[in-house]
Amino acid sequence: MRVIDTTTAYATVSAGSAQELTLAELADFINQLHRLPTVEQITAQFASLLPRQRDYEAYRLFSAKKYARNLIARSDYAELLMLCWHSGQRTPIHDHGGSVGVVMVIEGSMTETMYEVAPEGHVRPYNTFRWCPGGITGAAVPDIHQLLNLQPPGRDLVTLHCYAPPLTVLNTFSPSSSRRRKWREGSFTGGAGI
């Protein structure tokens, strides 16, 4: 398995550009959709975003037990969430249940491990990436991965996520078993992660 340190990000728009987006404008984009956006369309919107802490502070909420999922905007076609992670918090190994997903790192360093299904039915890792602020990663269907905050204690991670359509069901996987579990929206409370 390769581990890739990356600061690769989609080219961001220079300050003062007419295409520069605020978080509120990105939320308006989500709320005004009339059809499912593609990974490329979402990525282009994220690449134009100029994240300012004063704009996202209301969504920068953490949970002591699990990473926190904080809803910013949701339409029939997509949702925009801010996820907040303390050191050591992680998702299970999961897919997106038929939704495309795009993630942008806002604060901290995110580790993403990609998985494939082995012939025996369990999953195995094949690539790991470390994403820094401004880094954007996205995937169409199918995609199996795990996101982690592997930074030292006291170092938080804040990420922006868009799922299209909204993430209402997904599967979780294990590297030691071919058993899959289904997660449905509503099975987390108080914004806690899956």
Known CATH architecture: Sandwich
* C-alpha-based Rg, rounded: 16 Å
In whole angstroms, how far apart are the ends?
26 Å
Q: What are the secondary-structure elements, in order, as H or E?
A: EHHHEEEEEEEEEEE
The fold-level CATH name is Jelly Rolls
Helix/sheet category: mainly beta
Number of strands: 12
What is the CATH class name?
Answer: Mainly Beta
Notes on the structure:
There is one protein chain. By secondary structure, the protein is mainly beta. It has helices at 23-31, 39-48, 53-56, and strands at 2-6, 68-74, 79-85, 93-94, 100-107, 110-117, 123-131, 136-139, 144-148, 157-164, 169-173, 181-184. The chain has a single domain, classed as Jelly Rolls (Sandwich). The protein has a five-stranded antiparallel β-sheet. It has a four-stranded mixed β-sheet with strand order 1-7-6-9, with no helix packed on it. The protein has a three-stranded antiparallel β-sheet with strand order 4-11-12, with no helix packed on it. Strand 2 (68-74) and strand 3 form a beta hairpin. The model is unreliable at 7-17 (pLDDT under 50).
